[in-house]
Amino acid sequence: MPPTNHSASPPYSPKTLKQQQHHHHHPIRSLHRSLNYLLREQRLLFILIGILIGSTFFIIQPTLSKLGPPEPASLISRSVSLSSYRRPGSDPFFSRGSGRVPAGIGRRRSRIVVTGGAGFVGSHLVDKLIARGDDVIVIDNFFTGRKENVMHHFGNPRFELVRHDVVEPILLEVDQIYHLACPASPVHYKYNPTNVMGTLNMLGLAKRIGAKFLLTSTSEVYGDPLEHPQKETYWGHVNPIGVRSCYDEGKRTAETLTMDYHRGAGVEVRIARIFNTYGPRMCLDDGRVVSNFVAQAIRKQPLTVYGDGKQTRSFQYVSDLVNGLMALMEGEHVGPFNLGNPGEFTMLELAQVVKETIDSSARIEFRPNTADDPHKRKPDISKAKDLLNWEPRVSLREGLPLMVTDFQNRILNEDEGKGNK
């Protein structure tokens, strides 16, 4: 029997043969099996679609973040110190990264409080801010404001309504404060002359949280003016102990406080001096001449003209005023700015326009003039034109019919309510 050569080949082993076969054929078989599995179960299609969706998201996400609203301002205010971050509304340009981006282009959603936001002017301002995409908190004690003016926002998560009197302090975290809360008509401010304490509280809030503050002052700071038309540099001619002085001097004091907080505490402030404004949602019986004439004409009552009717006023439609307030808040100038329509009308001329619009048969009734009633009132708005690029667009004959329609509906509902009692 020939000798066995052990060095020529290793002894036979089924295990060794199996390992060798596995080593040579496993990668190919595994790949083949994997491809069959992917194709049979359509996993490859799902993988490709997933890659496509992921790539698309990462490509378009930066664009969406610029176009769409960012995270809610309430979250921003909690995660970022209000005193340390620069608010987009605090300057016409604000920093984003290393560049300077004009306000309104990729602007962050602001969190804004409007005191008196359920009132005539305030509710129109709220409408515009909500339409712009901001979060709005309305503070109102409903002394002259009405829930009906803002109830169309009740279902909106970006709108809040707080029943509160600003003569009492309140703590909120916001970016901007529009301070409109103050009875603005003779009927109301003579009954409830609150002006200074509300302004003081809201200025204190602005100081604590670093918010920008806008004061709505009034043309009444000019009193019975000796300058015509009135420029912002005119200091006024006011009776400090008259029946109107709680309002006139109250607003003058509010302006003083606003500038003191600006100079002494570094609060970023804006001051608007508002001239006669009219439009839908005005109080029906607030003693102001436009609402008086319109309500009287609709009710078939005589139009009451005080004195000889030669006193002049300038009337701006409420949408023009709202545009001016927002331009002032977003701008870089403190003010004060006159916001009014320089179109000047005597009381008799206004009565005639109301007659033409509502009832040509309405008659005019003269009554003794009230004390300290200004004889002339007309704004010089050249400063607002130059620095805010603002001027009124709506004429009295265009705006008055819009107000008349609103008054007719409300007076009709009022009469029906009385009839049902």
Automatic annotation (TrEMBL):
Q: What does this protein do?
A: Catalyzes the NAD-dependent decarboxylation of UDP-glucuronic acid to UDP-xylose. Necessary for the biosynthesis of the core tetrasaccharide in glycosaminoglycan biosynthesis.
Q: Which GO terms describe its cellular component?
A: Golgi cisterna membrane
Instruction: Please give one Gene Ontology molecular function term for this protein.
Output: UDP-glucuronate decarboxylase activity
Name recorded for this polypeptide: UDP-glucuronate decarboxylase
- Stretches that traverse the bilayer: 44-64
Q: Which residues form the NAD(P)-binding domain?
A: 114-401
Q: Which organism is it from?
A: Escallonia rubra
Instruction: Report the family membership.
Output: Belongs to the NAD(P)-dependent epimerase/dehydratase family. UDP-glucuronic acid decarboxylase subfamily.
Q: What is the lineage of its organism?
A: Eukaryota, Viridiplantae, Streptophyta, Embryophyta, Tracheophyta
Q: Name one GO biological process term.
A: D-xylose metabolic process
Membrane topology, as annotated? Single-pass type II membrane protein
Which first-to-last residue range defines the signal peptide? none
